[in-house]
Amino acid sequence: MATSVPGATQQFVPIKEIRNGVIVLKDGSYRGILICSSINFGLKSAEEQHAITLGFQNFLNMLDFSIQIVVNSRKMDLRPYLALLADKMPEQKTELLRIQLHEYIEFVRSFADQANIMTKSFYVVVSYAPHVSTAGAVGFLRRTGAHAKDAVAETSFEEDRAQLEQRLALVASGLSGTGVRAVSLGTEEIIELLYRSFNPGELENPIRLDN
Predict the structure, then answer these.
(1) pTM to 2 decimal places
(2) Whether the Cβ atoms of residue 100 and residue 89 lie closer than 8 Å to each other
(3) What whole-number distance in Å separates Cα of residue 64 and Cα of residue 62?
(4) How far apart are CA 48 and CA 17, in angstroms?
């Protein structure tokens, strides 16, 4: 099932469609996206930091294709959390607990108003550009007709997607050597990520790794 990115912004971005967890660009190339866990590097010991750095160096050296590392920073929306706490207020058994919960809610609200609390998400974009002989493809299509054209296009997409998925698996495996867990985004998750990217003023729940 293919899903096109709706809205007027579509004409300004190079995306043709999003299909089976794959971004198909207008130039015929493909993109897959991995969401990655984070590491608190500063809390690691010197030996652990060295091992992580060496592992990341080895990861980069093993790649024979380009990747893009994206860090997405967004202001954290604490309103759902505060609303949940407010709903728990009547359930408190004593007046003291209700007062303490109320003071905690006010503290969090005041702190959020004064501090710029950010949440960060980490992604790796993996590319694949299929090599197709245009002359051969055109000659074949002229001989076989429109129905064969659709069949060839579908077969080509599945073959190219398999190549992209191999690259995604290689990147995820390489990152695991540094202690970073990476998971491929599906179609709906990619659409959500792109929507948030083109609508930065809207507050959205972050995409999270499954536990």
Answers:
(1) 0.68
(2) no
(3) 7
(4) 42
DSSP state at residue 8: G
Residue 33 CB coordination number (10 Å): 24
Question: Using an 8 Å Cβ cutoff, are 20 and 31 in contact?
Answer: no
For 17, the token pair is 């469609």
In single-letter form, the type of residue at position 110 comes to S
Structure tokens at 167: 């690259």
Q: How many residues does this entry show for the chain?
A: 211
| 38-53 pLDDT per residue, tens | 888 889 999 999 999 9
The 3-state DSSP class for residue 149 equals helix
Separation of alpha carbons 1 and 20, rounded Å: 7
Cα separation, 90 vs 126, whole angstroms: 50
Q: How far apart are the first and last CA of the chain?
A: 27
Taking a C-beta distance cutoff of 8 angstroms, is the pair 67, 171 a contact? yes
The residues spanned by each domain of the chain are: 2-75+120-198, 77-116
